[in-house]
Amino acid sequence: MRIVTTLPSATELVAALGIEPVGVSHECDYPPGVESLPSVTRSRISEARRASSGEIDRQVLDTAETEGGIYDVDVETLEDLDPDLIVTQGMCDVCAVDEAVVADAVAELDADPEVLTTDPHSVADVLDDLDRLGRVTGREAHAREARLDLEARIDTVRERTADLDDDDRPRVAIFDWTDPVMIAGHWTAELVDWAGGEYGLADAGERSRPREWTEIREYDPELVIVAPCGFGLDQIAANWTDLTDREGWDDLAAVQTDRVWALDGHHYLNRPGPRLVDTLEAIAGIVHPDRFDAPDRNVAVPFDDLASIETGDADTAGDSRAEVD
């Protein structure tokens, strides 16, 4: 089956079934090698890698208003690839090409490929998408095996935090944008709960949205993880003052006790594919270092180590874009 994916998480889900797509999005970068596949999407946001989080947010809003959308599809390339199946998403029209853009492109094709739309807001939704893809592609056994492995890893984390009292669960805040400030939603509350933390600023399945800084200060998180949508560790370092220059930052309990971390939001927290389980394991290592191994330094680092990231000592991530869903 000839499959085209229009966002990174879809590419990773397809790869988990042992399938290499014939075309991908301009942001797809995992598994290694997919960058060389034909790209069927483009972003109208310019210089996102070097822009500040505030500038990206302004470009997103301006482009959505003046261009009618942030992304478009290369219909000519899509036609040449002649896909049987296109995998897209309906969760957020800012994070990636969405189902409406894909539908417009398909209407221009001579062929009539099947379109599978993902719309995950929980870890279970991601695993269900894996099952759906398995059925559509005839890879049910691959999907079942991949899901069982992911669920076993989740259970391992949950079992090791099940005995924690409420007092042993620190108040956690995870930012998925810093200017404006947004608290990560969707599956994030689940991940924090399973990792042994308290996530009092958002419920499981709730969309990410801008927050007043006063709300963050009142919550007074005991642990902060900064993982902006589309930002790798280097770009988090370049935009760190979005938070540190805010009034009251130094008074937060997490800052007072040196429990502030940066986590690669581009490849992990904000990519609803199999590596959400890697994200869970990383968060568990941050929340309860007494029970779990520390996260890989390519995934997450403490605030004090960001200076080395800014000088280019760590891998860079892909394109960046604000999540305003």
From TrEMBL:
<dbReference type="InterPro" id="IPR051030">
    <property type="entry name" value="Vitamin_B12-ABC_binding"/>
</dbReference>
<dbReference type="Pfam" id="PF01497">
    <property type="entry name" value="Peripla_BP_2"/>
</dbReference>
<dbReference type="InterPro" id="IPR002491">
    <property type="entry name" value="ABC_transptr_periplasmic_BD"/>
</dbReference>
<feature type="domain" description="Fe/B12 periplasmic-binding">
    <location>
        <begin position="2"/>
        <end position="291"/>
    </location>
</feature>
<protein>
    <submittedName>
        <fullName>Cobalamin-binding protein</fullName>
    </submittedName>
</protein>
